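pls design
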């Protein structure tokens, strides 16, 4: 019989990383999740359009958050056999051959696009090698919630966050997923976790409420499998509630 594992306190800090905000904004998702977090006295930091570049990912562990929610495009890259998380930083050959040369050369940074069209705008994307080798710091006991496509169609990115960087658990999707579907399911997942359900039960509840993605049939899952019995705990030693928005206004 599996026993329930308790994580250390959340230390009242969570971040919503909303790279999708520039293309598929959903303020209702942010407001709903923020309300859930605030009800549990967890400070909420929001990073939207203009905040999510390569340096943002590089320094992400230093934020000190215990819950990271990635509302971020993700795509499998066949060339490097890895998953890439999108930034909002447009691809530049000049930067790729100077500022980011080492990361590009070593497949830590790859070009990514939101569509398959040949002339689609390209952005810098970071792979699991970037998470392992280029990020400053670790994610010890951090809970990682991925909302993007294919974030658990393979375990490579999840293994990097958990085994290499110390994250407590990682949730993601087994295939492609629509923005509206992941928004609804993730909101329910976070709510269930903060109500005291363990990871497996919370994911099951979110899936029972929302089902698999109606277009792609993907489902939520988690890594590692033994983290299914893990529950979130929260420290109420500080009653201070903080919300902060670090997005930038989109230039027309």
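designed seq:
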């Amino acid at each position: 019989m599996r026993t329930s594992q308790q994580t250390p306190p959340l230390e009242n800090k969570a971040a919503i990383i909303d790279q999708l905000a520039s293309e598929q904004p959903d303020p209702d998702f942010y407001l709903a999740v923020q309300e859930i977090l605030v009800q549990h006295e967890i400070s909420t930091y929001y990073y939207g359009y203009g905040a999510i570049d390569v340096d943002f990912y590089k320094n992400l562990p230093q934020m000190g958050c215990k819950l990271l929610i990635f509302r971020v495009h993700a795509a499998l890259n066949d060339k490097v056999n890895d998953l890439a998380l999108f930034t909002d930083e447009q691809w530049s050959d000049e930067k790729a051959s100077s500022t980011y040369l080492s990361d590009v050369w070593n497949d830590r940074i790859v070009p990514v696009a939101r569509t398959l069209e040949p002339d689609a705008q390209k952005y810098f994307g970071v792979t699991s090698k970037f998470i392992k080798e280029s990020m400053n710091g670790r994610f010890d006991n951090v809970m990682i919630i991925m909302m993007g496509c294919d974030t658990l169609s393979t375990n490579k990115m999840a293994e990097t966050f958990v085994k290499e960087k110390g994250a407590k658990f990682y949730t993601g999707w087994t295939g492609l997923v629509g923005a509206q579907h992941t928004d609804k399911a993730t909101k329910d997942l976070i709510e269930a976790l903060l109500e005291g359900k363990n990871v497996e039960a919370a994911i099951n509840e979110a899936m029972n409420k929302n089902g698999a993605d109606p277009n792609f049939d993907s489902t939520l899952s988690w890594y590692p499998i033994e983290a299914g019995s893990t529950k979130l705990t929260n420290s109420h030693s500080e009653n201070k509630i903080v919300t902060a928005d670090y997005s930038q206004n989109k230039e027309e």
